[in-house]
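Sanity check

After download, print the first record. It should look like this:
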Amino acid sequence: MQTTSETSAGTVSGSAYTRRERGMIITAAVSGWGLEYFDLVILSLLASNVASDFHVSTAAVGGVFTAQLAATAVGGVLFGWLADRYGRRRVLTWTIWIFAIGTGLGALAPNFGIFVLLRMVAGIGIGGEWATGFSLLNEAWSPKRRGLAGGAVQAAIWPAYAIGIFVAGAVPSWRWAFAIGAVPALFAVVIRFFCPESKQWQELRRARAAGELPPDDRQDSMRRLFRRGNVRLVVLGTLLVFGAQYSYYVYSSWMPTFLKTGLHLGASGTQTVLYVSAGISLVSYLAAGALGDRWGRKRSLLAFAAVQLVAFVAFAVFIAAHASVGAVIIAYYVISFGLGYFAIFGAWFGELFATPIRATGSSFCYSVGRGIASFGPGLVGLLAAKFGLGGGISTGLFAVAAMMVTARFLTDRSGRAITASE
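Expected structure tokens:
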């Protein structure tokens, strides 16, 4: 039987979870994010193959990147709202099924138009997964270690990317790689049956049904999100993510192609550089998450963003000056280390928004920011005709600078307790 402190709407918090429950929740969050990333990144690893098979240009493939990223905004808004309404665990499984099925069916696309449509379907699921998984994690985790847990989830990108690199190099056709992208659907079944639901969300639902909540907590989450007190958080959070996502997608979407064709490293050399980059990012995510608990979310984000800004400037200068391949690759590695700030978003947004609107608010900021940034890869594809891929990728430095300015105005509520009704 639960104690009074565990069932009171105002006091249910992370302490109500057992160690086993936390273990299952972080496993679900890590798996969901890693699987999502594999399905998202596989296109960038095989962009040239897709273009060749469908007989389309580099700019056209850039348009696919843009289309799937724009779809993430739709999925983020929709599934964030659904997660506040129907529960974190249930909606998390929905999002995984959608992006897995969309990616898997892409392997069967008979033409480029159908392929683009299926990438958008996958994007809708991808957009909803991030905030849903992080909402569940934030509500279950200890406030003092929430940032480190977020860093561990973000670090799932490394094995996902490493697997993606391996698959892209091992399969006889890009279609086989996309077929493998349907595998996450099986993991969604496991999550649905073994992962516990958020206790804060369950208590909120009970209290709402019993009429124990004030009128504000009974409002629809989307309507409440745009009340006066939350609008500033939404706008700043969305702009923050836009800067981060633009800078990331302009270089991650095209870097495999740039390494192969721009720096002429070949398939083997490109794989090696990408593996090293992924390993560097793994370390940076864990470090940024831990430092977020120690320094606060804002200071940790700004520190890693500053490193990346310097590296982006160096990358742009090296490209313009036709510097050695080694110098360009070193700049790329430092850019990869600067990505640590992505480990901050999950915990930061989870602490900014109250339980009734946590998934809606987090997902809106992250997915809409990512959706607005979706023009980045397409822009690089267009710029490549005049400035080369390296020149287009260098535009990421402006987005990093904009992100740093925005971060200074966003509230930091690091380490606060998350309860059912706030």
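If your output differs, re-run the checksum step. Summary of this record's structure: The domain at 19-407 is CATH 1.20.1250.20 (Growth Hormone; Chain: A;).
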